[in-house]
Every structure is written in C-alpha cells, then in structure tokens.
Amino acid sequence: MDNKKVRAVIEAVLFAMGDSVEMGKLVHVLELDETQIRSVIAEMNDIYEKSDRGIYIAELENSFQLCTKPELYEYLIKVAKAPRKYVMSDTLLETLSIIAYKQPVTRLEIEKIRGVSCDHAVNRLLEFNLIQEIGRLDAPGRPLLFGTTEDFLRTFGVKSLGDLPTLDSEQMEDFKKQAEEEAGVKVEI
C-alpha cells in the first residue's frame, strides 16, 4: 500500500472512530509496523500544519486520535452544544413513551394514563430536549401539547416516529394480564 493510501486509511479510521484508536489496531488494519505508522502520522501532522488545517493527530498513550487544534476551540463553542449526559429513570421513560406514542398530548392525558402526577418528568424531558411544547389544545384552559424532538429521534436511533416499535395483539394481551395481576383489577384496552 502506498503512502497516500496509508494516510487516507488512517485519516478515515480516526475520523470515523471519533475516540482514540490503539496502535495495535492500526498495525493490524494497515499491516505495517509501529515505526512506519508513526512516520506516516508525523507526515500527516506536518501536512495539516503546513496547509493550515484545523485538525491534528494526537497521541494518547500509544493510541491516536484526530483532534481539533486547541486554538480553534472558541469557534467550536460558538457552534457546538456541550453534549448532555442524563439518566433516564423508569418514570421518565414511561412518560417519554406516552408522549412518543400519543403525541400531541397534554399533561392531563399523560397523568390519566400513568395514574400519577407527571410535572417533574415532563420538566426533566423538556430540559433534556427530548420533548417540546408543540402548541395548545383548543379546549378550556388551553393546555399545552407536547411532542418529541429531533434529539429524541437521534437519541433513540430512529429516523421517524413511524419507525417506533409497535406491539402486536399477543404482547398487548400479555401486558394486560400482567397489569390486571399487579393491580388486582380487570383492565379494559
């Protein structure tokens, strides 16, 4: 494999992985020794520097990662949002599921399905940008309607709401039986 192809493979692998890639993996993929790979990476960093590119390849404990040059971070901050880390409790997941499948839906409708207050869950889901206010119901008091966001689709790996899983009648019957047993009542669906 010629040097140009080796550079292209390294760049593609580091870009696609996002995180650092161990030297051993690069050795395996490229079928070259560590010295050759280090030489090509040094050459790539020289090319990036000479052509005033916004990236460089950082070495992190015998691993390599494609990174943005530190002097350009201020521009990234203006464009990128800091990634959010959040914990989805059962309550949040239940509330989110109701909104995803029933949208547009009001708080009252969510509470009717769950049987408990949903204020905290709805507020947290709004904070996480997984749901949004999408209008008001044309009814007394004009309650807010909620629906999912693009972040919801991205987070759960679906292209559209139509891609959400559906329950067949057998699964619905099983859930109905479980609910009846837990509650000690007969459930109507």
Structure description:
The chain is an alpha+beta fold and 189 residues long. It is built from 9 helices and 5 strands; from the N terminus they run αβααββααααββαα. It has helices spanning 3-17, 23-30, 34-50, 73-79, 90-102, 107-114, 119-127, 150-156, 169-183; strands at 21-22, 55-59, 63-68, 131-136, 144-148. β4 and β5 (144-148) form a beta hairpin. α1 (3-17) packs across α3 (34-50) and α5 packs across α7 (119-127). The model has no long low-confidence stretch (mean pLDDT 87).
Which terms would index this structure?
single chain, two-stranded antiparallel ribbon, 9 helices, 13% strand, elongated
SSE topology sketch:
Layout: H1 3-17, E1 21-22, H2 23-30, H3 34-50, E2 55-59, E3 63-68, H4 73-79, H5 90-102, H6 107-114, H7 119-127, E4 131-136, E5 144-148, H8 150-156, H9 169-183
Antiparallel strand pairs: 1-3, 2-3, 4-5
Helix pairs in contact: 1-3, 5-7
Compute the separation of the termini in Å. Answer: 64 Å
Strand order of the largest sheet: 1-3-2
Classification by helices and strands: alpha+beta
Residue windows where pLDDT falls under 50 for at least 5 positions: none
Shape label: elongated
Q: What is the total tally of β strands?
A: 5
Whole-number mean pLDDT: 87
User: Major sheet, described briefly?
Assistant: 3 strands, antiparallel
Rg, please?
25 Å
The helical percent reads: 40-55%
How are helices and strands ordered from N to C?
A: HEHHEEHHHHEEHH
The number of distinct helices, counting runs of at least 4 residues, comes to 9
The percentage of residues in β strands lies in 5-15%
